[in-house]
Amino acid sequence: MCAHTHCVVNKNNYFCRNVCAHTIKFFLQKMKKDNSNIRIVDIAKLAGVSTGTVDRVLHNRGRVSEEKRIKVEAILKEINYEPNLVARFLASKRSYKFAVIAPTYSEGDYWELVCDGINRAGDEMRKFNISVEYFHFNQYDRFSFLKAADKFKEKDFDGVLLATLFGELVVNLSKELDEKDIPYIYIDSDIQKQKDLAYFGGDSLGSGNIAAKLLLKEIGLDADIFIAHVRFKYKEISVQMKTREQGFMKCLSQSDYKGKIHHVEIDPDNHPAGLEKLEDILSQSDTLVGGIVLNSRIYELIALLEKAKPALRERVRLVGHDAIERNIRALKSGQISFILSQRPELQGYDAIKALANYFLFKQEPEKTNFMPIDILIKENVDYYNNYKL
Prior knowledge:
The protein is about 45% helix and about 15% strand. By secondary structure, the protein is α/β, with parallel strands linked by helices. Strands 4-3-5-6-7-13 form a six-stranded parallel β-sheet, sandwiched between helices. A six-stranded mixed β-sheet has the order 9-8-10-11-12-14, with helices on both faces. Strands 1-2 form a two-stranded antiparallel ribbon.
């Protein structure tokens, strides 16, 4: 309460009449602490103008004298006033449509987790009249990606979430989006020197580097290492896998590594060929042998190793990627030493939220948004799984 007898304040701390400088100072200090309940009428009384004048200044409409505008803007600046952007948007009735171009998946796959995060964000954004439509493609078939892209082009969208598995094709589609001035966000792996609004995903180069360090700690600098490539009908290697391998090899070259590097192709529908190659590699060494799969499908390598001779299988130490259920089971059983995970649900969730905030509130996201690289062992994986969005 102001001590001046000519100033009157009601029980709700709002001005009634005869506002003096002392009272203005008192309420400015109060509003700075909590401006969540500031009303236009309060700003008007502080500035000594009508509520209509404040409304016209806030929304930049109608005629306002320069003197009154300066008074209102001075009060707004003093109390750090921010209009209720959510209420303003809901009143506008504007709607936005986002496209998600991402791989198909089966239950328990890596991309199911990514899409779970996308769906979670989409559900939260529905109240803002935002809708999300998927265009799925086979991650091992570039022609499937082109078909999905063609279907996407048949419709109009405000923004796009784009999985970057097929680098060259993604760049071509990105250029088309640039020409149409449609904002897009990359997920899973980044592609440098593009005009994407942002990237959400793991640091693939860093992930490969960490994987190599962990593996060398397990097997030493003289042991052999094999890189297992899990292939299906189409022999495609994603941008993420290529970048992880670059990081892996760079770490080995900088670590005085003296062993041999082998490459093994695994066809889940034709295990004998891969098994023969793998057992040949393991037979050449009497010490530990390291192995890595550069995507989430290390469980396919586990299935192959289970058919190998026990004496050979026991000398293998593995590092894998992504905490999907099949990989976690192998980690807990001791078949995998480490799993590196990049929180796929979070990258999908954050990417959609960033796209929504860009349109709703004109918030420009950071260009690069790396997910944490979590190092999982059997002793801590349950704590990791307890974390949910």
